[in-house]
Amino acid sequence: MRVAVVDYGVGNIFSVISALNHLKIDFEVDLDGTKINKSDVVLVPGVAAFGLGIQNISESGQRNSIQKHFENGNPLIGLCLGAQMFLESSEESEGVKGLSFVPGEVKKLDRNKCAVPHQGWAKVKFNERTKKSLSLEDSYFYFSHGYRMEVEKADSHLAESAHGLEGILAVYKVDNVLGVQFHPERSGETGLKFLSEILSTDIV
Amino acid sequence: MVFRVIARLDVKPPNLVKGIHLEGLRKLGDPSSFADKYYSEGADEISYQDIVASLYGRNSIQELVSKTANHVFIPLSVGGGIRTAEDAVSLIRAGADKISINTAAIHNPALITQIGNVLGCQAVILGIEAKRTNGSNWTAMTDCGREHSGKDVLHWVQETVDLGVGEIILTSIDQEGTMLGFDLELIEAVRSVTQVPIIAHGGAGTPEDILLAQKAGANGVALASMLHFEKFTISQIKTYLNSVGIEVRR
Measured between CB atoms, which of A47, A52, A121 is closest to B44? Predict the structure, then answer.
C-alpha cells in the first residue's frame, strides 16, 4: 500500500512525514497532483487557514487529482484542516467552497461554551465498532483548532470529544473519506498507533 | 480541560541554556537530547525558545526543530527571531506545530494577524515577558527581557487577543530561574482579561507551585530549571497533580 501525502505549502508536513517514517509506511510527498493517481491512500494533513488551504491545492493542480481519487472510490484521510477541507464550507473563510466530498460544515467554536481556540490534549471516545476495528481504547489525543466540524449523519461519527460545554467531532467516516480533527502525528505513542491502524486496516 | 505540563528549553544554538531572570546563562548540553528525555517521561509539549535570535537577527533554530520533530511525537512550539509570516511557515514546515512571537509582535502587532491568516490563529502563540514595575503593574519586555517596550502587559494582552492569538506563554522575568514559585498575581491578572489559553512560565520549583498556577488560571505550565536540574521528573509532577484532582494526560 502506498500513501500520497499532500503538501500544499503551509501544513506541518515534516511532522507527518516523521510519523510515517517512524511507522515504516510507504509514502510519497505530492506537490502538484502527479503522485496522487499512483497511490492507494491520499493523506491530507493541515496546519493552515481554510481558505488558504483550498486556494493552494486548487492552484497546485492537486485538487483535480484528489477529486478523481475520491470519485474512483479510493480512500482519503484528512488530518485537522485536511479533514475540514473535505466538507462543504467553513466559517473561518466565508464564501470559500470546500472540497465537498462529505456533507457538512465547519463552525467556529462557541466562546460562550468553551475557551477558544481549543489547545491541548483531550480524551477521545471511540464508538464500540471503531474500538474493535482499530483495537484502541478511549485515549488522550492532541488538538489545536478554533473551528469544529459538523457532519450530519450520526452513524458517520466514529469518535467524539468535548471541550468545555462544546462537543467536538473527533473522527468521521463517510464512504471512502476519513476525517480526524486531532493530530495523531503529534499525539505520542497513542497517536502513532492510531495512525498506523487507520493506514493498515480497511477502515477507510 | 486537561492541564498541560510543558518542557521549556531555552536555546542559545547549539546549546540548551538556563539563566536567572533571563540572565547569567549556564550551558547545559544538547537541547535535543533533553527534549528526547522529556518526551519519554511524558511531557505534553516541548517549547523551544531561541533566546538570542532577536538580538543577533538570525534564525538558526530550524535545524534543531527538525532534528527533534523527527522522533519526538508531541507538539513542538518554537519562538525566537520570527519576523515575518514566511519565517513562521518555514518553522512549521520544519517540524514546529506552533510558533511564538514577542519582540516582532510588539514592533508590528499586525504580524499576529498576518501569521494567523496563513497558519490559522491556533498556531500563533503570543510570548509575553512581564516585569513587575510597581505594585500590580507589569511591563512587557522584548529582546529576551532586555528592552522595555513601554507597553503595559494587561493592555497589550487586550490589544492582541482581538488580533487572533491562539495561546499566551506568560513569562515572569522576576520569578524566572528562581524556582521560588510563579507570579500568581500576574497569572490572575492576565486571566481576568482573556479566555485564551495561558501557559505560565517562570518560577516553578515544586509540584505545589504548579497547582497554585492552575488555581490562578493557567491552562498549563512551562518548566525549565525544575526539570533541567532534576528537582522533579514530569512523571512525579503528573502523579502529584492527579492526586490533587487535576486532570493530566497519563
Answer: A121
Contact between B177 and B19 under an 8 Å Cβ cutoff? The reply is yes
pLDDT in tens, A43-96: 999 888 899 999 999 999 999 999 999 999 999 999 999 999 999 999 999 999
B129 part of the active site: yes
In three-state secondary structure terms, A46 is: coil
* Global ipTM: 0.94
pTM: predicted TM-score of the whole model, two decimal places: 0.95
Indicate if A157 belongs to the active site.
Answer: no
Domain that holds residue A81: 3-200
What digits encode the pLDDT tens for the residues B98-110? Answer: 999 999 999 999 9
Specify the CATH number for the domain of residue A17. Answer: 3.40.50.880
Q: What's the CATH code of the domain at B159?
A: 3.20.20.70
Residue span of the structural domain in which B83 resides? 4-243
Do residue A140 and residue B249 have CB atoms under 8 angstroms apart? yes
Find the catalytic residue in B10, B45, B167, B209: B10
Question: Number of structural domains, chain A?
Answer: 1
Per the structure, the count of domains in chain B is 1
In which residue are the cell numbers 483531550 written?
A: A122
Host H or E run for residue B226? helix B225-228
Residue among A44, A105, A49, A106 nearest A78 (CA): A44
Closest Cβ opposite residue A117 in set B1, B166, B220: B166
Report the gap between the CA of B24 and the closest CA in chain A (Å). Answer: 32
* B195: chain A residues, CB-CB within 8 Å: 111, 115-116
Mean pLDDT, residues B165-175:
97
Task: From A43, A38, A39, select the one nearest A198 (Cα to Cα).
Answer: A43
With pLDDT > 90 as the criterion, what percentage of chain B qualifies? Answer: 84
